[in-house]
Amino acid sequence: DAETEPEAEPRQKPRGEVVDINRGPRTSAAAPQPAEPEGASAPQAPAAPSVRRLARELGVDIRRVSGTGIQGRISADDVQAFVRGAMSGGGAAGSPAAPAAQPLPDFTRWGDVERKPMGNIRRKTAEHLGHAWSVIPHVTQHERADITALEGLRKRYAPEAERAGGKLTMTAIALKIVSGAIKRFPQFNSSIDQAQNEIVYKKAIHIGVAADTPRGLLVPVIRDVDRKGIFELSKELAQASEKARNNKLALDDMQGGGFTITNLGGIGGTSFTPIVNWPEVAILGVSRSSWEPVWRPASVEDEGSFEPRLMLPLSLSYDHRVIDGADAARFLRWICDAFEQPFVLSL
Q1: 63-94: b or e for each residue (b if 16 or more CB lie within 10 Å)?
Q2: 276-310: pLDDT as tens digits
Q3: Residue 6 lies inside a defined structural domain of this protein
Q4: Residues marked as catalytic
Q5: Which of 208, 276, 286, 307 has its CA 20 to 30 A from that of 3?
Q6: pTM of the model as a whole
């Protein structure tokens, strides 16, 4: 999710051009000379508005799709077939190769530089997040939870969690809270199958937790979160984090998640926009809690006053194709209520 420096002087693209999601094998070639953008003067591909919208949602340049209808008209099936072919590694039959990456300027004109090869984890992260950002229409909802009472409970029961072999962190508590929210809002534990025009609702609640390691970002998955207590979750989370730091995570340890939590609170920040971990449809970002003055309205015994409260910023990014804004607001509000009143989990 780290912000990257934008490329200098990008080539102007024609209006309406979309990203090609072809992720087939890369071929080494000399940097191409700037050329006129492909399709700038090509006739518009024959397709209905709904088919064009589908192509945009999937990140497909519709001019690359071969239509099988009358006079080459492109159907939704043609777009879906193109995507299946592209994601299989070789691109759609008869489609041109993916365009080469835009060449960088010669930075040595302005000073010394150093080049280092991308590690496997960094390369895979870049490919995965780039694909997720281009395919998923992201929206981020922000909220704050009052965790003053919860922090007192966390400190009170932390020694018991340590005796069980874990560490009672806010992330461990968030795992349990999110699993409760997913039970009430199952669309947040789904995936969209655009090729079949279906939404896949997952019955098991497996939640990934982003881990910052010396080699890069890894996301181990905690299984069956809804069936486990907070102490058991805190132990499993500590074990997964240790395996991530020591390069002992197996591929299966990072697969099958239905939702992701990423916590930057130990570093800082007041909010951020996490990128959805495709093929999931939502991710919860947790920032650093801080003490803030919060107005408590007047009551029969009290005239009202400002009180210091420990507030936790939360950021929910979601796939707008599957989740509506109102549902996202309800989901995040439920999570805040559970942080503020943990007994909500038992309702």
Answers
A1: bbbebeeeeeebbbebbbbbbebbbeeebbee
A2: 999 999 999 999 999 999 998 888 788 889 999 99
A3: no
A4: 320
A5: 208
A6: 0.72
